[in-house]
């Protein structure tokens, strides 16, 4: 909702009674919120624009990737042929990539799709695609360099590692400010906007559409920000530490897998994007080489055991990392986190070492898992998908229309065109409490807010040129 009330405030200033002393000083609540809304947009819009665009790609990854890589991902089932055993397909992959480690296998999602093996090679991770009927290797891709893989990295860290995570988290914090101030401006400015539309003022239609769209999207934006916070590198990590100290967790911890863990499922499958959120931090148990040498289980055994135990399909099977490793069968339950389960299969006797699912999650992990399913547009199937897609499209409109309105009304002189306003915190204690609460609950917001206030007090107000450029209220 950035910049939407630019014209609104101007109309009020021109059509109402002569400016009061408070307005001349820029202490009115409307003008103060307008200013914070304006400046928040400078940080929020570039990041949110990227998140909305990459979010759209991620939403339709299952439709886009098979089109872009049809030669690898799509197959034709020959008449009379059935799929080869997964172990046979695994042997073909190992022969095609000698010296590499096959990390996991994911079943075909349909009769016209290939089997996918995740392989760690000397040159980096590869997704290897196998024709399940002929058992031949079709080719491979770097999972982080596909369209959807790049979108995931941009969406999560702007391809800048930990610092990228911090930038996204900071923008998310200020997006809350932008949404809350935007709602205030939308409600308070509705009369002025109606006047401008009735008068046929330039840009009135765009301002009205921007405001109405923002009023609808604001709630969704707040939800996506809150549901995405557990992913963040600072707030998410610190809050998880706090939750753990209170006996709960954002993630589940498989007690049966903690006896001799070699890694977590996230660490076992770092590039697969198939591990459910709630199971990502579960440990992986070990097989006992001295137990059950009479038979050796295969990846087909793990699939069969998973199917007998009701795991959702297509399953992903994490392969044993060594003589003590296990087959970890993961049932993703794409549309219903409540049906997420994983089980670990001993690689010798084929027995289930442990099983863990949504019903075993801590209460907090259950809430986070459901929130993330909504965030990713999959909780309620096609309806959730298209609503989230419409939301992303609306955000893209907001990111374009806000700067466009500012560009149209920007002053011709050497000034930024920022609205003049100052938060009347002394006169409105409730507002002061809200600002302090946000700063405490969102530490990166608090730190950045303090930096902005210090810059305003120590630099912008004292340098005449900067004071004029930024239109600082004295």
UniProtKB/TrEMBL annotation:
Residues 1-22 are annotated as: Disordered. Residues 85-140 form the PepSY domain. InterPro entries: PepSY (IPR025711), PepSY-ass_TM (IPR005625). Keywords: Membrane, Transmembrane, Transmembrane helix. The chain crosses the membrane at residues 38-60, 166-187, 215-237, 385-407, 428-455. The keyword Transmembrane helix applies. This is PepSY domain-containing protein. The lineage of its organism: Bacteria, Bacillati, Actinomycetota, Actinomycetes, Propionibacteriales.
């Amino acid at each position: 909702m950035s910049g939407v009330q630019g014209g609104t405030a101007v109309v009020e200033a021109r059509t109402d009674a002569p400016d009061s002393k408070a307005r001349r000083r820029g202490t009115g609540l409307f003008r103060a919120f307008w200013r914070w809304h304006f400046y928040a947009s400078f940080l929020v819009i570039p990041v949110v624009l990227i998140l909305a665009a990459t979010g759209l790609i991620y939403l339709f990854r299952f439709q886009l990737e098979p089109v872009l890589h049809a030669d690898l991902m799509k197959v034709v089932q020959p008449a009379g042929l059935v799929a080869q055993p997964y172990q046979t397909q695994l042997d073909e992959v190992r022969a095609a990539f000698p010296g590499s480690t096959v990390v996991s296998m994911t079943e075909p999602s349909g009769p016209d799709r290939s089997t996918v093996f995740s392989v760690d090679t000397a040159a980096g991770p590869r997704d290897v695609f196998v024709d399940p009927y002929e058992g031949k290797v079709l080719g491979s891709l770097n999972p982080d360099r596909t369209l959807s893989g790049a979108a995931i990295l941009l969406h999560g860290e702007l391809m800048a590692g930990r610092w990228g995570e911090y930038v996204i988290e900071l923008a998310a914090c200020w997006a809350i400010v932008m949404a809350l101030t935007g709602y205030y401006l939308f409600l308070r400015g509705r009369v002025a906007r109606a006047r401008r539309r009735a008068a046929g003022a330039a840009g009135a239609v765009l301002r009205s559409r921007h405001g109405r769209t923002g009023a609808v999207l604001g709630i969704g934006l707040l939800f996506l920000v809150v549901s995405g916070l557990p992913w963040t590198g600072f707030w998410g990590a610190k809050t998880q530490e706090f939750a753990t100290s209170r006996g709960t967790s954002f993630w589940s911890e498989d007690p049966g897998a903690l006896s001799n863990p070699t890694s977590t499922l996230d660490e076992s499958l770092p590039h697969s994007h198939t591990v459910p959120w709630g199971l990502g931090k579960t440990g992986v148990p070990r097989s006992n080489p001295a137990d059950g040498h009479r038979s050796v289980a295969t990846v087909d055994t793990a699939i069969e055991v998973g199917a007998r135990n009701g795991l959702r399909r297509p399953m992903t099977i994490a392969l044993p990392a060594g003589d003590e490793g296990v087959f970890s069968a993961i049932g993703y339950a794409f549309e219903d986190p409540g049906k997420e389960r994983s089980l670990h299969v001993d690689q010798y006797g084929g027995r289930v070492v442990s099983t863990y699912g949504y019903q075993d999650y801590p209460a907090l992990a259950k809430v986070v898992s459901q929130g993330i399913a909504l965030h990713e547009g999959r909780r309620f199937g096609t309806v959730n998908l298209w609503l989230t897609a419409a939301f992303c499209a609306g955000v893209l409109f907001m990111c374009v229309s806000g700067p466009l309105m500012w560009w149209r009304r920007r002053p011709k002189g050497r000034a930024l065109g920022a609205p003049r306003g100052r938060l009347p915190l002394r006169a409105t204690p409730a507002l002061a409490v809200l600002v302090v609460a946000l700063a405490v609950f969102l530490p990166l917001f608090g730190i950045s807010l303090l930096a902005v206030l210090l810059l305003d007090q120590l630099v912008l107000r004292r340098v005449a040129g900067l004071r004029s450029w930024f239109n600082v209220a004295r």
